[in-house]
C-alpha cells in the first residue's frame, strides 16, 4: 500500500503537518499538480506561475538533499492525475493541507472527494492556518488563534520510507502559458521567505507602522511576506514564533510596529475564516440589500482607463501601473484603487476584483473578496470610506516622486501641479511642452461630483430597513472575532 502527499498551498517541508505525517509511511508518492483548468484562467498570471515555479524548485532541491526524494510534478487536470495514480498504485491515504480557494478550486476538490470515496482512499486533511473548522465559536476565536500559533514547531524528522518516483517533469514554460512578463517580480521559495522575515525582523520593521502607507516607503518597510503566506513557503506559526521572541527578548526593536504587524497576521486568518464560513462572498454581495446597485452601470471605457492607468488622476494611475509592473501594492493604495473604481467610477467589484487578482502575486480569495466588498460598501457593516485620490496623492507622495517614476508623461510637471496636472495654465503647458489630454489624459470624471453621487446612492440603500435588517445577520456571521 502507498500513501500520497499532495503539496498544494503549503510549499514547504518544515512545520508542515501533512509532511510530518506522511514521512512515517512505508511508501510515499510526493506530488504537486498544476491544474490545467485553474492555471489557464485569466485571473492567473505570470506573477503567480513564476512564484510557484521558484517555490517548487526550492522544494524539490530540499527534498532531494534531505530525503533523497523526488517531487512528482504534473501538468494536467487534477482528476486525471488521481485516476492515473490510483490505477497504477494501491493507494491507502492521501495527505494534504486544507486550501480555502475560489469556487473553481472547490469544485475540483468535490470531484476528487467522490473519486477517493469510490476507490476507498482516505483523504487526510490538516489545517495550516489558525481557523476554527468544526467548533465555530467567535468568543474563543482569538484564544484559539493564539494557541494555534504558539504550538511548538516540530523539527524535520528522518525518514526510512520509500519515496516513489512516478514520472519526469520538465518545468513548465510559463512564458508559453502566459505571455505577460515583468522586469520586477517577487521570488518564491522557502529560502527567499526566510530571508525576508529575517531582514524585516532585524531592521526593515523600524517605523513600519508609519511607513507602510506611502507606496514608495512601503516597498521595503512592509514585510513583503504575503505571497509566501499565500503559497505556504513560510508558516504563519513560524512568523509569529520568531516575532514573539523578538518582542519579548530584544530592546532595540520597534515594539509598536512589531505589534501592529502581529495584529495583521491574525487578520489574515480572520479573513480566511470568513471565506471558510461563507465562500459565496467571492461572487455575491455580503449584504444582499446591495444587489442591483452597480450591476447595470458597467462602463467599459471607464473600466479600461482604470485597468491601464489612464484615468487622468496621476496617483491612481501611478499605483495601477506600479502594481502591474511589480505584482504588489501596499494596503492603503489597494484600498484607494478599489474605492475609486467602486465609487467614483461606479464599477461592480466582481469585475474589478478579477483584474487585480491577476496582478496581486499574493492573491488570497479570503482576504481579497472581503476587502473588495469592504472598500465597495457592500458589506453594510463597515464604515463607508470613499478615498479622495487627490488628497492621498498630497499626503503619500508630497513631491510626486512616485508619480513621476510611474508616469513618465508627467516628468516635467512641477511639484505644485503634479497631483492635479489639469490645473496647468495654457502658458505653463506651452513652457513645459505638455498638453493636458495629449501626452496624458484629462481626468475622466469630476472627482467631487462623482464622490457625492456615489455617497448619496450608497447611503440610500444603507439607511433602508431591509439593509439594516440584513446587516444584523452579517454582523452575527462575520464581525471581528473575539
Ligand atoms: C482591495 C484589497 C485586496 C487585498 N487582497 C489581498 C490578497 O489577495 N492577498 C493578501 O495577502 N492580502 C490582500 N490584501 C491585504 C494587504 O493589502 C496585503 O496583505 C499586504 O499589502 C501584503 O503586503 P505585506 O506582506 O508586505 O504586508 P504586511 O504589512 O507586512 O503584513 C503582514 C501580513 O499580514 C497580513 N495582512 C496585512 N494586511 C492585511 C489585511 N488588511 N487583511 C488581512 N491580512 C492582512 C498578510 O498576510 C501580510 O502578508 C488586500 C487589501 C485590499 C485593500
CATH superfamily of the largest domain: DNA Cyclobutane Dipyrimidine Photolyase, subunit A, domain 3
Structural class category? alpha/beta
Strand fraction band?
Answer: 5-15%
- What is the CATH T-level topology of the largest domain? DNA Cyclobutane Dipyrimidine Photolyase, subunit A, domain 3
- The assigned CATH architecture of the largest domain is Orthogonal Bundle
Counted up, domains total 3
- What is the distance, rounded to the nearest whole angstrom, between the alpha carbons of the first and last residues? 45 Å
The proportion of residues forming helix, as a percent range, comes to 40-55%
Named once each, the bound ligands are:
flavin-adenine dinucleotide
Shape label = globular
Descriptive notes:
It is a single chain. This protein is an alpha/beta fold and 482 residues long. Helices cover 53% and strands 7% of the residues. It contains 24 helices and 6 strands. Strands 1, 2, 3, 4, 5 and 6 form a 6-stranded parallel beta sheet that branches. Helix 4 packs parallel to helix 5 and helix 12 packs antiparallel against helix 13. The longest helix is centred in the middle third of the chain and has 23 residues. The structure holds flavin-adenine dinucleotide. The site of flavin-adenine dinucleotide (FAD) has 28 residues, from helix 11, helix 13, helix 16 and helix 18.
Amino acid at each position: 500500500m502507498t500513501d500520497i502527499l499532495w503539496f498544494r498551498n503549503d510549499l514547504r517541508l518544515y512545520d508542515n503537518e501533512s509532511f510530518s505525517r506522511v514521512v512515517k509511511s512505508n511508501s510515499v508518492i510526493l506530488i504537486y499538480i498544476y491544474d490545467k483548468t485553474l492555471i489557464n484562467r485569466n485571473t492567473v498570471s505570470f506573477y503567480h506561475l513564476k512564484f510557484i515555479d521558484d517555490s517548487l524548485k526550492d522544494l524539490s532541491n530540499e527534498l532531494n538533499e534531505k530525503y533523497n526524494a523526488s517531487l512528482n510534478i504534473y501538468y494536467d487536470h487534477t482528476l486525471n492525475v488521481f485516476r492515473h495514480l490510483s490505477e497504477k498504485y494501491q493507494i491507502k491515504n492521501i495527505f494534504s493541507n486544507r486550501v480555502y480557494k475560489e469556487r473553481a478550486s472547490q469544485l475540483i476538490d468535490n470531484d476528487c472527494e467522490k473519486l477517493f470515496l469510490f476507490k476507498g482512499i482516505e483523504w487526510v486533511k490538516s489545517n495550516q492556518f489558525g481557523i476554527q473548522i468544526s467548533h465555530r465559536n467567535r468568543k474563543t476565536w482569538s484564544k484559539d488563534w493564539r494557541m494555534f500559533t504558539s504550538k511548538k514547531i516540530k523539527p524535520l524528522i528522518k525518514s526510512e520510507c520509500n519515496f516513489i518516483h512516478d514520472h519526469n517533469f520538465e518545468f513548465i514554460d510559463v512564458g508559453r502559458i502566459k505571455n505577460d512578463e515583468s522586469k520586477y517580480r517577487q521570488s518564491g521559495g522557502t529560502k527567499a521567505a526566510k530571508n525576508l522575515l529575517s531582514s524585516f525582523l532585524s531592521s526593515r520593521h523600524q517605523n513600519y507602522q508609519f511607513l507602510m502607507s506611502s507606496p514608495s516607503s512601503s516597498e521595503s518597510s512592509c514585510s513583503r511576506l504575503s505571497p509566501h503566506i499565500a503559497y505556504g513557503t513560510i508558516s504563519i506559526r513560524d512568523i509569529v514564533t520568531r516575532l514573539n521572541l523578538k518582542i519579548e527578548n530584544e530592546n532595540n526593536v520597534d515594539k509598536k510596529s512589531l505589534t501592529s504587524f502581529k495584529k495583521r497576521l491574525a487578520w489574515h486568518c480572520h479573513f480566511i475564516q470568513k471565506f471558510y464560513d461563507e465562500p459565496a462572498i467571492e461572487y455575491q454581495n455580503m449584504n444582499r440589500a446591495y444587489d442591483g446597485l452597480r450591476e447595470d452601470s458597467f462602463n467599459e471605457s471607464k473600466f479600461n482607463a482604470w485597468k491601464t492607468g489612464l484615468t487622468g488622476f496621476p496617483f491612481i494611475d501611478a499605483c495601477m501601473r506600479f502594481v502591474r509592473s511589480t505584482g504588489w501594492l501596499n494596503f492603503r493604495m489597494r484600498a484607494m484603487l478599489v474605492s475609486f473604481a467602486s465609487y467614483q467610477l461606479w464599477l461592480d467589484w466582481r469585475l474589478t476584483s478579477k483584474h487585480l487578482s491577476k496582478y496581486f502575486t499574493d492573491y488570497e480569495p479570503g482576504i481579497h473578496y472581503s476587502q473588495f466588498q469592504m472598500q465597495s460598501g457592500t458589506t453594510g457593516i463597515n464604515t463607508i470610506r470613499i478615498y479622495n485620490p487627490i488628497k492621498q496623492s498630497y499626503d503619500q507622495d508630497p513631491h510626486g516622486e512616485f508619480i513621476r517614476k510611474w508616469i513618465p508623461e508627467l516628468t516635467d510637471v512641477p511639484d505644485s501641479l503634479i497631483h492635479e496636472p489639469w490645473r496647468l495654465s495654457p502658458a505653463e503647458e506651452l513652457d513645459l511642452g505638455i498638453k493636458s489630454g495629449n501626452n496624458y489624459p484629462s481626468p475622466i470624471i469630476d472627482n467631487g461630483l462623482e464622490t457625492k453621487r456615489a455617497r448619496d446612492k450608497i447611503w440610500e440603500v444603507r439607511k433602508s430597513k431591509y439593509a439594516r435588517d440584513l446587516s444584523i445577520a452579517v454582523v452575527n456571521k462575520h464581525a471581528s472575532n473575539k
